[in-house]
Amino acid sequence: MKQTGSKCVIHTHSKAANLITQLIKLDTFEISHQEYIKGVTDQFTGRNLSYEDTLIIPIIENQSQEEELLVRTGLAKCLRTYRRSCATLVRNHGIFVWGSTWEKAKIMAECIDYLLDLAVDMTKHGLPLG
């Protein structure tokens, strides 16, 4: 929380967060031109993203113990590289979402979970995410 300046971190094991990291073999999840992107805050500017913006969430590899995520996967480096992101996906595991208040973190977690669920369906149907 020190690196992000956040006051709240929400960690979930949602089915959509787990699945999308298996469907996308990249180091980031990216989606644009979806309404719910407006519910996500750019952590650098403090402003909400717009419909035209691309939401980018880094994906790190899972570890056998959650405390190893900081050391073995380079989570600290990931937070520096993706300073605008309010979340990190953990492959085959779940997602961490953070915000300046618990209310903002909760709203963003809900919006991102919706977008991840949508992305799973879009990927199944061969639709582009951007």
From TrEMBL:
Tell me which Pfam families the record gives.
Aldolase_II
Domain of life according to the entry: Eukaryota
A GO cellular-component term linked to this record: cytoplasm
Which is one GO molecular function term here? Answer: methylthioribulose 1-phosphate dehydratase activity
Which residue windows are coiled coil? none
Which Gene Ontology BP annotations are present? L-methionine salvage from methylthioadenosine
Q: Where is the Class II aldolase/adducin N-terminal domain?
A: 4-119
Query: Which protein family is named in the record?
Result: Belongs to the aldolase class II family. Adducin subfamily.
> Which protein is depicted?
Class II aldolase/adducin N-terminal domain-containing protein
What species is this protein from?
Dictyocaulus viviparus (Bovine lungworm)
